[in-house]
Design the sequence.
């Protein structure tokens, strides 16, 4: 049951991420600024998370633990900001489906490297044939989808 809930949670996170990317791309169009769209994204997220912490829904933050946190653990916010900004810029160029497939491919590839090397405290999982086949399938999906997108754009006129 724990695995099923984890899979549902991961699937929900992926779906929410895609919806958020589409919303941010539209916000960028309205505001004429990818940075403003990303800033609003993070401001709303920060406000919600701060409210949840304030209401005691999550365990309170132990500030002493910040002093023993590895330096690289603080770069998640920067990487999230880069992701949101790049996604906001790229969706109008590639479309949501191709952008999402490309993001999933890059996430899978980097996940495989991190798992294999055990970076950032991850448990080591070696690269194997099923993982390589899964990544190759994603590359094929990106190419096929982009070919279809190119065909669709050519036949719009």
Sequence:
């Amino acid at each position: 049951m724990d695995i099923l809930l984890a899979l549902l949670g991961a699937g929900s996170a992926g779906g929410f991420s895609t919806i958020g990317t589409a919303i941010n791309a539209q916000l960028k169009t309205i505001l004429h600024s990818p940075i403003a769209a990303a800033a609003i994204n993070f401001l709303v997220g920060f406000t919600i998370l701060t409210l949840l912490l304030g209401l005691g829904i999550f365990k309170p933050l132990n500030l002493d633990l910040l002093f023993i946190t590895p330096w690289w653990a603080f770069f998640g916010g920067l990487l999230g900001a880069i992701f949101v900004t790049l996604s906001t810029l790229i969706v109008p160029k590639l479309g949501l489906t191709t952008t999402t497939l490309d993001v999933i491919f890059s996430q899978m590839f980097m996940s495989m490297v991190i798992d294999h090397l055990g970076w950032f405290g991850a448990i080591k999982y070696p690269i194997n044939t099923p993982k390589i086949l899964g990544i190759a399938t994603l590359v094929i999906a990106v190419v096929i989808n982009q070919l279809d997108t190119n065909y669709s754009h050519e036949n719009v006129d």
Remarks:
- The chain has a mean pLDDT of 88.
- The helical segments are 2-31, 34-54, 76-94, 96-117, 129-154.
- The longest helix spans residues 2-31.
- The chain is about 75% helix and 0% strand.
